[in-house]
Amino acid sequence: MAMGPLKELRRRFSHAHITLVVGSWNIETAKEFRLADDYIAFDFFSRNPSLDKGREEAASIKPLLLGEFDLAIDMRVPDETRPVLLAVPARHRAAIVDQYRVDGIDIAIAPFNLKLRRNVFYKFAQRIGIADRIPRRFFDWFTDRNQVRLQHVTEILSFLVAKAAAYFDNENDAHNHQNAATKGAPVVVAPFSNSNLRDWPIEYFGQLVAALAERSEVVVIGRSESQAALENVVKIANDLGAALVSTAVDLPELEFNQLIKSASLVVSNNSGTGHVAAQLGRPTVGIFTASHLPEIWGFQGPLVSMLMSSIECRGCGLDQVRRCPIGVRCKFDIKPDRVFAEISSMMNHVRGKVADAVPLAVSTAAIYPLQMGLAGRILEGAPL
Question: Would you say the pTM of this structure is higher than 0.85?
Fold first, then answer.
């Protein structure tokens, strides 16, 4: 089942040097299909699990590998082989995993249902002998929906390969854009979205603009209905000693795009400005309230980082401030100094050098067949 996805991996990473880690009994088959450049036999599992000989230590993979890899991708759907993946020295690791529960894996797709488990009511119906006379959905309301959501293992693994390839496309885009920001280019700040609930506090934006203006010219942009608030942001910044701050209101679309394209950095609420900036390859920092999750609605691009509160009710979907029972606390959890620290980290990354390319590792369980999109951040600055 991994052969198709491995062929796709070979196609998408056509210039990579691929090392395939596979069970010793599968080496010749892997070579027959020309799935990699190098092949390593590693019997993490017994060939016949029913013999119950136990598993090899995950760390035993290390002496078999030479050097560090750009990518290690675990192409086993169940999660028994994730310790092997984590033992591989690699800049990036990809797997089917709950990213919030497993550290060290930065390219991930969420686990899928692999079984249609019986609920307690259906088990009881089987026990008393009536399950074959009444449709299962009468006992298990979600069984039909769960069956529709089932996906073949090959398709799941192909999705993982595609996500890894997209991640590296973004990394290449980031490398191409690193020198695009010219010296003296402005920082663009977009403080307003189309919902008050999504907007970071004006006083916070004023403090952030003041800090940014110490390093560069800052242009605060928005629409005419927000002009008074924009001027308030500038006033707060000026009161804190900022000088190089201006506003741009109701820019024509062409001028707006040219400004964003010329920016050294764009800071935006959850709004269209951030999406455009990210797609144009500009370093982009997004500040999100908890109503809309950046995992779903966030900016996508080669140099993106997003900040959001770690509040328990994140993802509430509210659209009006008055409906929030706790006064939209998530708007105030992220402080200006935290955003400024994230900006500094991003810009240091932009100015840094990209490491020399190193090989690509692929593993299975018989393959642990194992964004530069800057990783977004969430939970008051913890990794997303």
Answer: no
